[in-house]
């Protein structure tokens, strides 16, 4: 599967990128970056470094520095660290970003791989909305858009109602949902159903000291955050779950539902099932075989 990941690395973004690099069924052809867990310049630097660590010679195009509305959003250093990869110091990639901005590069890639390209968005979905706004054919050219975000029948994680990626740019998600593209939502309904504990990351580092080792170190702060928040030392595989949903849809129960994203007020970022709103139905992952997702993720690092 030809895949582009739009990302804000981010501890679980790093997990998703390494997963895509190692999974034999994925041909990762580019990364595009966005603000979110860190400022976009740090996201680009991290994405370049993660790709290099994974031995990938692929372009990385820098994207949105803020939401479509230009609302100011602070990075979440207490979850992902000052530099985005837990307690790790700033990384120093060898390469530099592609000349085109992410949304233009996405349009170019979708045109070049018409009907074949799956775009997996694991940060605020601003770059994809901008691609849709700037190229009327973008939504038709992509095979599918799979995004990590939203909370359909469960509480949010930045507010009672909203998941972080949808809260960061709700307007962008409404544009993507109504673009005519096939859209799959991988939200907290599934990603919160299985947590990974310290032993899980110990296993990754043991099986794959290089890449598993990076994730082992990066996940310490992430696990600290979950422990202080949920009272249990286990973190979610949010972003890798979305990548796995691209290639292994059979691991999920998807319901076709018209979704509307609340753009302002106390419920900003809420993803509501709204049959009377005129939005087209998208595929919403309402359940997942998360034990299989965890096993699938670990298996590409060599964990049996
Ligand atoms: C999402 O928000 C970010 O913090 C994570 O990287 C993930 O994409 C989870 O709500
Ligand atoms: Ca992310």
Task: Please tag this protein with its features.
binds calcium ion, 18% strand, alpha/beta, binds beta-D-ribofuranose, nine-stranded mixed beta sheet, 304 residues, two-stranded antiparallel ribbon
Radius of gyration from CA coordinates = 17 Å
> Structural class of the secondary elements?
alpha/beta
Span between termini: 24 Å
Helix content: 40-55%
Q: Looking at the structure, what is the overall shape?
A: globular
Unreliable stretches (pLDDT < 50, length at least 5) are: none
Q: Ligands bound here?
A: beta-D-ribofuranose, calcium ion
Share in β-strands: 15-25%
Counting DSSP H or I runs of 4 or more residues, the number of helices is 13
State mean pLDDT (0 to 100 scale).
96
Largest sheet: 9 strands, mixed
Q: In total, how many beta strands?
A: 11
* Helix-strand string: EHEHEHHEHHEHHEHEHHEHEEEH
Strand order of the largest sheet: 3-2-1-4-5-6-11-9-10
What does this structure look like?
- There is one protein chain.
- With 304 residues, this protein is α/β, with parallel strands linked by helices.
- Helix content is 40%, strand content 18%.
- It is built from 13 helices and eleven strands.
- The protein has a nine-stranded mixed beta sheet, sandwiched between helices. Strands 7-8 form a two-stranded antiparallel ribbon.
- Helix 1 (11-22) packs antiparallel against helix 11 and helix 5 (126-134) packs across helix 8 (170-177).
- The longest helix has 20 residues, at 211-230.
- The structure holds beta-D-ribofuranose and calcium ion.
- Residues 8, 10, 12-13, 36-37, 122-123, 239 line the site of calcium ion.
């Amino acid at each position: 599967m030809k895949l582009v990941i739009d990302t804000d690395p981010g501890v679980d973004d790093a997990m998703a990128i390494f997963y895509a690099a190692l999974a034999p069924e994925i041909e990762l052809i580019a990364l595009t970056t966005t603000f979110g867990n860190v400022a976009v310049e740090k996201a680009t630097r991290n994405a370049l470094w993660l790709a290099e660590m994974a031995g990938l010679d692929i372009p990385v195009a820098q994207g949105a520095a803020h939401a479509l509305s230009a609302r100011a959003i602070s990075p979440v250093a207490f979850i992902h660290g000052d530099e985005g990869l837990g307690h790790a110091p700033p990384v120093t990639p060898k390469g530099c970003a592609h000349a085109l901005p992410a949304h233009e590069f996405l349009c170019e890639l979708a045109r070049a791989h018409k009907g074949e390209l799956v775009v997996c968005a694991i940060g605020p979905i601003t770059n994809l909305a901008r691609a849709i706004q700037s190229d009327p054919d973008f939504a038709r050219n992509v095979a599918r858009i799979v995004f990590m975000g939203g909370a359909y029948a469960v509480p949010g994680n930045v507010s009672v109602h909203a998941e972080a990626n949808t809260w960061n740019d709700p307007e962008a998600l409404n544009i993507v949902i109504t673009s005519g593209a096939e859209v799959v939502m991988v939200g907290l309904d599934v990603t919160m159903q299985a947590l990974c504990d310290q032993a899980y990351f110990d296993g990754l580092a043991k099986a794959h000291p290089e890449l598993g080792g990076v994730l082992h170190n990066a996940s310490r702060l992430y696990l600290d955050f979950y422990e202080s928040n949920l009272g249990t030392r286990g973190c979610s595989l949010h972003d890798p779950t979305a990548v796995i949903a691209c290639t292994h849809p059979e691991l999920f129960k998807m319901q076709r539902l018209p979704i509307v994203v609340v753009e302002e007020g106390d419920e900003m970022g809420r993803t509501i099932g709204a049959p009377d709103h005129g939005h087209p139905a998208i595929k919403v992952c309402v359940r997942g075989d998360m034990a299989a997702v965890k096993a699938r993720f670990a298996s590409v690092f060599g964990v049996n």
